[in-house]
């Protein structure tokens, strides 16, 4: 059970929970009424961080005249060009919102534009694996540095993350990071994994790194749970046959999808029953808000300083 002071934090945090956007892949939405108008955000920019929900809305499909040509690569990434029509693009404003989405606990929702004033088709939720720079012309035809984000559909990473297989450690990780019980070290590794990284040129390498970063977050939240569901507090229903550890599932409290990298203060380790209840139960939103508050109480001691 949580201490009394943490129970107070649970109640306060639950009361301030934000609405999580819910869209259907392939469905067309009116941007002004159903996306940025409803959840807050710019009605014109291609990158629109929400003011009212933990989300960043990205719009693709137009703007080639301004140097915005998005496309998919052979690894399934959407190569999404950052914002900035003149001069070198900078990692600020909307571009920084994409790069920092995991640290900020936001979901990246991508929409295909079909023309000015026309509905936008929802392509799904994406994770930002990395970014790189390329040389291209700006609106006036002058060559400049362009930021390109590699966005991977979250559905491509979900199965790997929930699979009952041992995680593969990053080659750069120390042995201490993998030792059970060393919660502080595990958290430091998870926090480091969530920070916006530098540019990565090799697309194949960025896929490998993305899985390893996500594994660090998963490893920490499972250790933090200490074998008990972080929502109902019941013991894990069984142990994994792969390594004998308690079976709990990572759940992203600010997003509908559970794949992709996220900050540990936005991920809970919960039992399969609570996980299904949140996603499919009629009381799911309320229980998700309760989990958000419980995780906030657990992470509160790390707030400030370098705890992030």
Description of the molecule:
The protein has nine helices and ten strands. With 308 residues, it is an alpha+beta fold. It has two domains: 28-153, PUA domain-like; 156-302, no CATH class. The strands form two sheets. Strands 1, 2, 3, 4, 5, 6, 7 and 8 form an eight-stranded mixed sheet that branches. Helix 1 crosses helix 9, helix 6 runs antiparallel to helix 7 and helix 8 packs across helix 9 (284-299). The longest helix is centred in the C-terminal third of the chain and has 23 residues, at 203-225. It is globular and about 60 Å long. The two termini are 24 Å apart. Residues 4-16 and 158-179 have low confidence and may be disordered. Residues 216-276 form the HNH nuclease domain.
List the helices and strands and how they pair.
Elements: H1 4-15, E1 28-29, H2 31-39, E2 47-49, E3 55-60, E4 71-72, E5 78-81, H3 93-99, H4 101-104, E6 107-113, E7 120-137, E8 143-153, H5 155-162, H6 183-194, H7 203-225, E9 249-252, E10 267-270, H8 272-280, H9 284-299
Parallel strand pairs: 3-6
Antiparallel strand pairs: 1-7, 2-3, 4-5, 5-8, 6-7, 7-8, 9-10
Helix pairs in contact: 1-9, 6-7, 8-9
Structural class given helices, strands, pairing? alpha+beta
Q: Give the fraction of residues assigned to helices.
A: 25-40%
Count of discrete structural domains: 2
Residue stretches low in confidence (pLDDT < 50, at least 5 long) are 4-16, 158-179
End-to-end distance: 24 Å
The beta-strand count equals 10
Query: Compute the gyration radius: what is it?
Result: 20 Å
Major sheet summary line = 8 strands, mixed
How much strand? Answer: 15-25%
Q: Secondary-structure element order, as H and E?
A: HEHEEEEHHEEEHHHEEHH
With helices defined by DSSP (H or I, 4 residues minimum), what is the helix count?
Answer: 9
The general outline is globular
Mean of pLDDT: 81
Protein name: HNH nuclease domain-containing protein
Organism: Ralstonia holmesii
Pfam families: SRA_ScoMcrA
InterPro entries: HNH_nuc, SRA_ScoMcrA
